[in-house]
Amino acid sequence: MNNMVAILFLLFFTDGIAGFIENSKQNQKVQVTTVTDYLEPAISTVVTGHVGDVLALSYKNRILVQDYERLVATFTKRTETSCWQTEFWGKWFTSAVLAYRYHPTPELKDILDKAVSGLIATQTPDGYIGNYTEERRLEGWDIWGRKYCMLGLVAYYDLTKDKKALQAAEKEADCLIKELSDKNALIVKKGSHRGMAASSVLEPICLLYGRTGEKRYLDFAEEIVRQWETPDGPRLISKASVDVSKRFPIPDKWYGPEQGQKAYEMMSCYEGLLELYRLTGNKEYLTSVEKTWQNIRDTEINIVGSGSAMECWFGGKKLQTVPIHHYQETCVTVTWIKLTQQLLRLTGEAKYADAFEQSYYNALLGAMTRNGSSWGYYSPLSGYKIERKEQCGMGIHCCKANGPRALFLFPFAAVTSSSDGVQVNLFAGGNYILQTPKKQKIQITQITDYPVDSKIAIKLGLPKQEEMAIRIRIPAWSKQNTLNVNGNQISGLVSGEYATIQRTWKDGDEISLELDMRGRVKKLGEQPENLAIMRGPIVLAQDSRLPGPPLDTWVTPIRGEDGYLDLKIKGTGLDGVWMQFTADCTLEPYGIEGNLEKTVTFCDYSSAGNTYDEYSRFRVWFTKQVDPRKL
After folding, report:
1. Bond before 528 cis per omega within 30 degrees
2. pTM of the predicted model, to two decimals?
3. Are 502 and 438 part of one and the same domain?
4. Among 373, 389, 413, where does a domain finish?
5. pLDDT along the chain (631 residues), means of 10
6. CA separation for the pair 87, 578 (Å, rounded)
7. Which of 149, 161, 179, 605 is surrounded by the most beta carbons within 10 Å?
């Protein structure tokens, strides 16, 4: 990555840097009040191992092959009255920008250039970029689609500093603000889901203010938040302490204006609220997001790191052991990861890195097809996976466009810098170049096959000695941990926190970490009791392609006296399966033999059912038979 791309990359991911920004309307400098993120991403990253392979597959088979001309063409028709074709350009494009920042190539840059110029060419004299009829503008998913156009245009501006893109985004925003004003319309009464889809435009509006200093954008952002708290709004601040599934009564029309539990749109609004917090420093905004995030994790997020049914929150964490209709939309998984990564950047807290890892390795990778070309729409915890073909006649669906937006966040979240040093949030082989507090470039090299392996070696490349803090995440699930610096053991490690090593570091220093990869059996429910197996951050599943009993057999893992399960790693041997393990289990078939002990083979959840046909059935949770003697 050349120096200019590195600088642009750093600027894009540190929206909280305070400073003077040129006012494009008045040609003067204006002060934008901001909050600086606690963490800043690496200047450049090369990820190896399984994550590196996954990124490469998505880059080649999803990002580069998209027919962007078809996505642009929908903006030239303006005949739509209800659908959401215009979101696809923005979702794919912002994914592609992330992919380019990770791995800049002339081929992808040319595609980005043409995709933007094609979109801008469709803009009408009044600034509108969209496909709705004149009389239906502002209705349905029109504002939602405008949001994604603005997000893409701002992302391109941040990458290239091409003012045409920024000006096009400004015109789109100004058009929206004028239309709402001319029609005396409340944004929270437009579209569905208590205005959350439409008012999630808060995010690009805040980004525009941060890049132009134009106060009308800040005023509009604050007006959106004000409308949230009106009787017609979603009350995203005042209801931050209320369970996300219980904020409003269940409506008669599930996908309609009264639905206040829509998961994706709710989290998108909270992403925008974090951007507004960066601009204003209003702590209530951050607190509202933190409370909601914690509630989602406590009441909705399942063992693989996602949730929702029929795209809405429903108190699903406690129900995850049973079949659930339209479970775990990939767009919900993506937005949960994006929101989590935003909070990690702002606060540096370990729980956000833990949650990111859980969702990334399980729910997210479990939704991607094996060659990276597509994404599943819903992802069950039992049964089989189904790949949806398209929406709105566009040859693409929302999750297929959206999946890489979370996938390509990994390189920018793994190893980060802070004002006093470096923080290792995620473990993956590769090289990470960062800036130290004294403005040196430090290379962090991770040598590991994690999470297959329990050991992570970290080597430092540093031109000059420098005192600083290096923080290493100790995952909450890991109870037995060993951390060494140049062979000297570090004491006082706490699971679920960062180990802070403050010292003078020099070139060639080595850090070694070994985590607890013993098999863990998770329980949920009482009568019946359900069991699931985890190893490190990975959820395991039984798959019908693997050796073992039929999926309808009652399986109980046999744990040792320490309560952990003895998992033995097994060479893959099955095409498309990342990890396989065997474990001794008790089988409980009907018959006079009684319980049988047998070795059962399990695989990682992301590989389970990844043939996307009915011949690859799987299950995560194992229901135990009810014993009447224990009732």
Report:
1. yes
2. 0.94
3. yes
4. 413
5. 37 32 36 84 97 98 98 97 96 98 98 98 98 97 98 98 98 98 97 96 98 96 98 97 97 93 98 98 98 98 98 97 96 98 98 98 97 95 89 93 97 98 98 98 98 98 98 98 98 98 98 98 93 98 92 91 93 84 87 76 96 89 87 79
6. 33
7. 605
